[in-house]
């Protein structure tokens, strides 16, 4: 995978941080998620609104401590 660096203002980085669903989510993943939502907005506005609402609900659950740690999830799934 070819990698490049981009410069962001601290404020822009802070905005991106609000869209991270988990602590180790990379900025590449966040940007791709936001681009995907923007693309969906153009083709299916109702679906994109649902995606944004699901992301917000997930963020609230994670902030409230309602999540399963990776180790526990692997154990549950027998992995």
Q: What is the tally of helical segments?
A: 4
Q: How would you describe the shape?
A: globular
Written as H for each helix and E for each strand, in order along the chain, the element string is HHHH
Structural class: mainly alpha
Chain oligomer state = single chain
Distance between the termini: 27 Å
What is the helix fraction of residues, given as a range? 55-70%
Low-confidence stretches: none
Compute the number of strand runs: 0
Largest sheet: none
Mean pLDDT: 86
Strand content: under 5%
Report Rg: 15 Å
Question: Could you give a quick summary of the protein structure above?
Answer:
The protein is mainly alpha-helical.
Structural account:
- It is built from four helices and no strands.
- It is mostly helical.
- It has a domain at 30-79.
- It is globular.
- It starts with 9 loop residues before the first helix and ends with a helix.
- The model has no long low-confidence stretch (mean pLDDT 86).
Helix/strand layout:
Blueprint: H1 10-17, H2 27-43, H3 45-63, H4 70-77
Helix pairs in contact: 2-3
Which descriptors apply to this entry?
79 residues, mainly alpha, 66% helix, globular
């Amino acid at each position: 995978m070819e990698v490049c660096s981009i410069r962001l203002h601290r404020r822009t980085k802070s905005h991106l941080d609000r869209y991270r669903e988990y602590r180790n989510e990379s900025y590449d993943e966040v940007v791709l998620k936001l681009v995907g939502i923007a693309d969906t907005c153009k083709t299916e506005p109702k679906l994109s609104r649902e995606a944004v609402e699901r992301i917000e609900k997930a963020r609230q659950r994670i902030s409230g401590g309602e999540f399963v740690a990776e180790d526990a999830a692997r154990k549950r799934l027998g992995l």
